[in-house]
């Protein structure tokens, strides 16, 4: 092979290697991948709402209605007395674009055993089936007293639950689940529980 041919082959090999190196550069990324990642980053912290798994089929009750709940070891009366919007106070405020909806409730324990309720028993749902949990920050407000905790037989507990929802949210309903842990663990067959929530239109 003469000197000119060797030079041509060497030049072609160098160009080929350079092209491969540029094509495999780790700094080049698919624009769609970047856009997808940015979209995930934005949505990860925008809202605490979550879509309901399915539409609620339980009967809907009204404000002021005394609802009797009798199942297994439960014998309760549950009432949603009123609702209002709380403006917040000082540094304790809802996020911008949201508002705090206060739901005043009464739980009467008519059974023979003490019953304990926590915030996980309550949530609200809007007209789009988005659900919202209790806003724990609002419990620090001096005019908010939670209805949760232990209720002895024959006693009752009245208090306020606060939910943070977008300002334009409409048709809110309160969902009260007396047995959230048992129902979550799917122990209904063993305990004969009704896991349909109590639904009250606010």
Give a quick precis of the structure.
The protein has 202 residues and is an alpha+beta fold. 22% of the residues lie in helices and 33% in strands.
Overall description:
The chain is of the alpha+beta class and 202 residues long. It has 2 domains: 3-44; 50-201, Immunoglobulin-like (Sandwich). It contains 4 helices and 12 strands, in the order H-H-E-E-E-E-E-E-E-E-E-E-E-H-H-E. It has helices spanning 3-23, 31-44, 180-184, 188-191; strands at residues 50-51, 60-61, 67-71, 74-86, 98-109, 115-117, 122-125, 130-133, 149-151, 156-166, 173-176, 198-201. The strands form 3 sheets. A 6-stranded mixed beta sheet has the order 1-8-7-11-12-2, with no helix packed on it. A 4-stranded antiparallel beta sheet has the order 3-4-5-10, with no helix packed on it. Strand 3 (67-71) and strand 4 (74-86) form a beta hairpin. The radius of gyration is 29 Å and the shape is globular. The N and C termini lie far apart (92 Å).
Attribute tags:
four-stranded antiparallel beta sheet, signal, alpha+beta, DUF4352, single chain, 4 helices, 202 residues, six-stranded mixed beta sheet, Immunoprotect_excell_Ig-like, 22% helix, 33% strand, DUF4352 domain-containing protein, globular, 2 domains, Immunoglobulin-like
């Amino acid at each position: 092979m003469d000197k000119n041919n060797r030079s041509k082959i060497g030049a072609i090999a160098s160009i080929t290697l350079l092209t491969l190196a540029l094509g495999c550069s780790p700094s080049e990324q698919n624009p769609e991948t970047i856009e997808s990642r940015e979209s995930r980053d934005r949505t990860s912290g925008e809202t605490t709402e979550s879509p309901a798994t399915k539409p609620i089929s339980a009967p809907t009750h009204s404000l002021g209605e005394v609802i009797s709940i009798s199942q297994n070891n439960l014998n309760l009366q549950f009432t949603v007395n009123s609702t209002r919007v709380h403006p917040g106070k000082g540094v304790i405020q809802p996020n911008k674009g949201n508002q705090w909806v206060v739901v005043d409730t009464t739980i009467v324990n008519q059974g023979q055993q003490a019953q304990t309720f926590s915030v996980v028993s309550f949530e609200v749902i809007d007209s789009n089936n988005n659900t919202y949990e209790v806003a724990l920050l609002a419990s620090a407000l001096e005019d908010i007293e939670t209805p949760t905790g232990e209720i002895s037989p024959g006693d009752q507990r009245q208090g306020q639950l606060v939910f943070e929802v977008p300002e334009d949210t409409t048709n809110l309903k309160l969902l009260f689940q007396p047995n959230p842990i048992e129902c979550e663990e799917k122990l209904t067959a063993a305990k004969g529980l009704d896991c349909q929530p109590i639904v009250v239109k606010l």
